[in-house]
Amino acid sequence: MERFEILGIDNQPSVVIDPDYGQMEFKCNLKDFNIAAHCESVLNKIKEYFYNPQTVTNIIFSVKEFNPTTAKWLLPVFKTIKYYKDKGYFINIKWYLEKYDDNYKTAIDYCQVIDLPIKIMAV
Predict the structure, then answer these.
(1) Does CATH number 1.20.1640 belong to domain 4-122?
(2) Each residue's pLDDT tens digit in the chain (123 positions)?
(3) Terminus-to-terminus CA distance in the chain, angstroms?
């Protein structure tokens, strides 16, 4: 697999999947964006990465504001990652959130609902 990258322009999040370093990064700094624009291709690239992953995969989520749109975008991504975590792949996940975002507590609850070990990092 080659490095996969979507630049976060207009109304889409930015995504980088770098198989050489075992890293994935998902950034969203918009309140509303087009979640369907690249969702399927991102999920396919995540699956492709796990055909031949690094020993440890580090995943970073950076969400400027957690809201229903970002929750809807993240759910299929988290479900896909959870599938591989449950299969025994070693995955570290950090989620950077604005500490003073009104939905900070909601995001923490969201992590518990999806049942995936995610380290929340307040910024």
Answers:
(1) no
(2) 999 998 876 567 789 999 999 999 998 765 555 556 667 888 999 999 999 999 999 999 987 777 777 778 788 899 999 999 999 999 999 988 877 766 677 777 888 888 888 888 888
(3) 32
